[in-house]
C-alpha cells in the first residue's frame, strides 16, 4: 500500500555502472600471498580470485536485481531530521493480511519478511525495514554528527508517517544500537517493546551491581558462556581492525572501497565468513550483497561514517536503559557474546532465548529461529502479548 508521501521504488542500476564494473574487474591487480595462511592475514587470495572471476564472467546482476524488486515492496519518502535537513529514505513496507498484526520496525529483512507477515500460527507483523541513511538506496547524510540519535529519529518518524503511532522494534548490528536508542528515547508512548539478536552489556560491577557481581564470583561460567567470552576476546584482538579505521579515518579507506570493486569485495567477504556460524555462502549470494554496497545511492564510503560518528560522539548506548519490555536472542557465533546474566540489568528484560547455532547475521543465517523468538515474545503466551494497545496479538 502506498501512503501519502510515499513513492514506489524499484532498484535500477544503470547500464553505464555495470559496464564500469566490468571494466574495473578486467583490470584487477591482485596482491601476493604467503603460503599456508588461510584466513590468518585476511581474505584468502584464492577466494577473491574465484569471486572476481564469477563477477566478471557468470554473475548476472540484472537477474538478482529483478528478484529483489519482485520480493520486496519498496518505497522512498522524505523525512526531515533535526539539524540535518530532509533526507530521502528508502524502505520496505509490507502489511500482514491480518488486521490485528503488530507494527514492527526491522532492519535486516529479505529472508524474514514472508515469515513475519504470515499469521496462521501465532502473531503476525506489519513490517517496515528502513535503509539506513548512507546505506543501500537511502540518501546519505551531508553534515557531520549524524549518529544514533539521528538514525533513531529517522526510524521513529518513518513509523509515524506510515500511520503506526505505536510499534515494536527489532535489530542486530547497528540496528541493535539504533533500536535501543528508539526504545530509550521514544519508549512508552510510541515504541512499545524492543528485541535484539545482539545483546550488549558490561560485566557485573561490584559497586553498581553487587548481587550480580557476587553471583558470578560464586558461580562458574558454563561451557558455552566461556566459549562466548573467548570468542569476544578473540574478536577484540584480531577482528576489530575494520572498526578502528572506519571510526577514525573513513574517508581515507573510502577511496579504495569506492574505486576498487575487488577491495570492496575482500573487505565485506571477510566479515560475511568470519561473523557467521559456518554459513554456506553461495558465490552469487555474496556478490549480490557486495553489489548492493557498490551500487548504493551514495557509494560504499557513506556506509562507513556511522562508525566515526558513534565513536567520536560517544554514542555507544551503554548508558541507555530502555524501560519498555525487552527481549534478547543469543546466537553462539555472535562477534561479541556476553553471558546471559550480564544483560539482565540492561532494561526491562522479559524474554531471553539461547540458540545452539547461528552468528552475527541471524536474520539471514537463522531466519526461522529469529522469527520463532519474536512469535514467542509477542504471542498469546508470551510476555509482550497485547503490548500494542488495541491489538490482541493475532
From TrEMBL:
Record protein name field: Uncharacterized protein
Domain of life the protein comes from: Eukaryota
Organism of this sequence: Pleurotus cornucopiae (Cornucopia mushroom)
Amino acid at each position: 500500500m502506498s501512503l501519502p508521501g510515499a513513492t514506489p521504488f524499484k532498484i535500477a542500476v544503470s547500464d553505464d555502472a555495470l559496464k564500469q564494473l566490468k571494466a574495473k574487474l578486467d583490470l584487477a591487480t591482485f596482491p601476493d600471498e604467503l603460503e599456508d595462511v588461510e584466513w590468518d592475514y585476511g581474505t584468502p587470495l584464492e577466494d577473491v580470485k574465484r569471486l572476481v572471476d564469477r563477477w566478471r564472467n557468470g554473475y548476472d546482476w540484472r537477474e538478482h536485481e529483478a528478484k529483489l524488486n519482485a520480493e520486496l515492496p519498496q518505497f522512498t519518502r522524505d523525512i526531515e531530521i533535526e539539524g540535518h535537513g530532509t533526507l530521502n529514505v528508502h524502505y520496505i513496507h509490507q502489511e500482514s493480511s491480518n488486521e490485528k498484526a503488530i507494527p514492527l520496525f526491522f532492519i535486516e529483512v529479505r529472508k524474514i519478511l514472508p515469515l513475519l507477515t504470515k499469521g496462521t500460527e501465532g502473531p503476525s507483523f506489519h513490517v517496515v525495514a528502513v535503509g539506513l541513511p548512507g546505506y543501500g538506496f537511502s540518501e546519505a547524510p551531508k553534515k557531520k554528527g549524524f549518529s544514533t540519535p539521528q538514525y533513531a529519529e529517522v526510524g521513529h518518524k518513518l513509523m509515524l508517517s506510515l500511520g503506526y503511532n505505536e510499534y515494536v522494534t527489532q535489530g542486530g548490528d547497528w540496528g541493535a544500537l539504533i533500536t535501543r536508542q528508539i526504545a530509550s528515547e521514544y519508549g512508552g508512548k510510541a515504541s512499545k517493546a524492543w528485541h535484539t539478536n545482539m545483546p550488549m552489556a558490561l560485566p557485573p560491577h561490584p559497586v553498581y551491581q553487587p548481587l550480580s557481581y557476587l553471583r558470578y564470583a560464586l558461580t562458574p561460567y558454563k561451557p558455552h558462556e566461556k566459549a562466548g567470552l573467548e570468542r569476544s576476546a578473540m574478536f577484540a584482538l584480531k577482528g576489530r581492525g575494520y572498526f578502528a579505521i572506519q571510526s577514525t579515518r573513513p574517508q581515507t579507506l573510502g577511496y579504495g572501497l569506492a574505486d576498487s570493486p575487488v577491495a570492496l569485495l575482500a573487505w565485506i567477504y571477510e566479515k560475511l565468513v568470519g561473523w557467521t556460524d559456518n554459513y554456506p555462502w553461495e558465490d552469487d549470494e555474496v556478490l549480490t550483497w557486495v553489489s548492493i554496497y557498490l551500487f548504493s545511492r551514495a557509494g560504499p564510503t557513506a556506509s562507513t561514517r556511522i562508525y566515526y560518528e558513534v565513536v567520536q560522539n560517544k554514542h555507544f548506548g551503554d548508558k541507555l536503559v530502555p524501560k519498555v519490555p525487552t527481549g534478547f536472542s543469543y546466537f553462539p557465533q555472535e562477534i561479541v557474546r556476553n553471558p546471559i546474566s550480564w544483560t539482565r540489568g540492561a532494561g526491562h528484560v522479559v524474554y531471553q532465548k539461547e540458540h545452539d547455532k547461528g552468528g552475527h547475521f541471524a536474520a539471514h543465517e537463522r531466519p526461522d529461529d529469529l522469527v520463532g523468538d519474536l512469535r514467542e515474545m509477542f504471542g498469546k503466551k508470551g510476555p509482550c502479548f497485547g503490548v500494542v494497545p488495541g491489538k490482541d496479538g493475532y
